Amino acid sequence: MGKGEASAKRSISKDDWERKLGAVRVRKEDMNKLIMNFLVTEGYVEAAQIFEKESLTSPGVDLGAITDRMEIRKAVQSGNVEEAIERVNDLNPEILEEKHQLSFHLQQQRLIELIRQGKTEEALEFAQEYLAPRGEENPEFLEELERTVALLAFEDTKNSPVADLMDIAQRQKTASELNAAILSSQCQEKEPRLPSLLKMMIWAQTKLSEKVDSPQITDLVAATLSDPASEQRPA
């Protein structure tokens, strides 16, 4: 974008923008539902119970059932994958029977945990018995299996090319996939609405900036408005 094109953009001051935002009315009930949706989807049972009493907002689901889902998620996050699988099958055996990719990822996580514990022989036997047959049926699974087994070739897995598999984030990824599957089986939303709304806001700001020089929220935590680019002075 050239200098002349940039200067032709309409500019809105921070004061004018704040007045426009102040004129927008959002119902408190809608905000409460958004908060409750986040608490329920993410499994904050106690917080949801307190919020229900204080705001009189219905969670829309049995909060007691959330406890089982969160215990399953915590089991994966702590590396107890076998326990998580048993709990899922007790809750609804069709989840793992129907979702083959999820089932593979759980078994993959079991393999990772065996490698983490230094059980090399057991890890190899497990990979051959439970994962290799699935890899032969699905090229995508085979690639993931090969990356996981490659961990056995390194004494220091943290500095290996596949170190990401040993990171706690890998457990979280598997736990989130399982959590979403349970939510789907219970006809609930897989993800809370709030993060999606924030992503939409960032997208809208980006599109708007192409035509209008206006304040933007750059810090989502503080939710403070920046000055328009035309009013910002270099440090």
From TrEMBL:
SMART domains cross-referenced by the UniProt entry: CRA (SM00757), CTLH (SM00668), LisH (SM00667)
UniProt superkingdom: Eukaryota
A Pfam cross-reference name: LisH
CTLH domain boundaries: 65-122
Listed name of the protein: CTLH domain-containing protein
Taxonomic source organism: [Myrmecia] bisecta
